[in-house]
């Protein structure tokens, strides 16, 4: 079996770089709505992502059913739990998610470089992926991810430090919000193409597909724009057209 980066890259080439953020605020009928999304939208997606608040109400059987359906429809499955804890806790959480059928987890590098390295190494050993936070899409992200930090005699910004760790440790990608195309461009250049950039914030949050792709983003994470559409399949198709046009 190929590793996560190879699997999602192949699917993106076959279909599109679009990832559905299946993150409903209204948690009624989550299983049935998600299975419907997989069935009707999979032709336009390379992956589907689930946030913490969506996973919590679902049981083991429901999650396994969903991940199995996603794989049957040619999708990779990403757990967006922003994992950030001590090493042993991280590894147990990761193994549990893998057993449930997830291909990749999104983590918070605040866990520290040592813990991040161990998690990436174990994930790659099991053909799974790790995407590390670098800079988020919300306006408030500037307050935290652009904080000045100092390590010894070296001064930098927090997102630049996270970028350095992710590059050095061969993470499968980083999260950089579509609302910050200048930072996407910076990260892509600094990593010398070694990191895939996954960009949330397309559409509802203000991120523009064309500028995000032009800046160097590899994968576009879209949620509410598709989920809230009167015709989700048509909206996804149109977004694919814009993404592949660039």
Describe it for me?
The protein is an alpha/beta fold and 246 residues long. It is 48% helix and 19% strand. The chain has twelve helices and ten strands. It has helices at residues 4-14, 30-41, 52-55, 60-72, 87-99, 113-125, 141-145, 158-168, 181-190, 209-215, 224-227, 232-245, and strands spanning 18-21, 47-51, 76-83, 104-107, 129-135, 148-151, 154-157, 173-176, 197-199, 219-222. It has an eight-stranded parallel β-barrel with strand order 1-2-3-4-5-8-9-10, surrounded by eight helices. The chain has a two-stranded antiparallel ribbon with strand order 6-7. The longest helix is centred in the last third of the chain and has 14 residues, at 232-245.
Helix content: 40-55%
**H-E string:** HEHEHHEHEHEHEEHEHEHEHH
Largest sheet: 8 strands, parallel, barrel
Q: How does the overall form come out from the CA principal axes?
A: globular
Q: Calculate the terminal CA-CA distance, rounded to whole Å.
A: 31 Å
- Mean pLDDT level: 94
Radius of gyration: 17 Å
Largest sheet, order of strands side by side? Answer: 1-2-3-4-5-8-9-10
Number of strands: 10
Label the structural class.
Answer: alpha/beta
Uncertain stretches of 5 or more adjacent residues: none
Q: Number of helical runs?
A: 12
* Portion in strands: 15-25%
């Amino acid at each position: 079996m190929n590793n996560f980066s190879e699997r999602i890259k192949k699917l993106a080439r076959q279909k599109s770089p679009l990832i559905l953020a299946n993150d409903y605020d209204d948690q009624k009928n989550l299983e049935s709505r998600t299975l419907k999304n997989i069935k009707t939208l999979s032709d336009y997606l390379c992956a589907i992502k689930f946030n913490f608040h969506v996973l919590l109400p679902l049981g083991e059987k429901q999650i396994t059913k969903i991940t199995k359906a996603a794989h049957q429809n040619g999708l990779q499955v990403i757990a967006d739990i922003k994992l950030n804890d001590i090493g042993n806790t991280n590894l147990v959480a990761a193994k549990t998610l893998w057993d449930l059928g997830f291909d990749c987890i999104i983590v918070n590098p605040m866990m520290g470089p040592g813990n991040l390295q161990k998690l990436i190494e174990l994930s790659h050993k099991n053909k799974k992926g790790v995407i590390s936070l670098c800079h988020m899409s919300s306006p408030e992200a500037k307050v935290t991810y652009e904080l000045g930090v100092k390590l010894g005699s070296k001064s930098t910004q927090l997102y630049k430090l996270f970028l350095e760790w992710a590059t050095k440790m061969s993470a499968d990608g980083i999260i950089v919000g579509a609302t910050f195309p200048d930072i996407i461009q910076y990260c892509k250049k600094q990593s010398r193409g070694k990191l895939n950039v996954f960009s949330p914030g397309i559409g509802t949050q203000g991120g523009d597909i064309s500028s995000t792709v032009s800046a160097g983003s590899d994968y576009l994470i879209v949620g509410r724009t598709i989920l809230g559409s009167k015709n989700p399949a048509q909206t996804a198709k149109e977004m694919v057209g814009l993404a592949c046009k660039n």
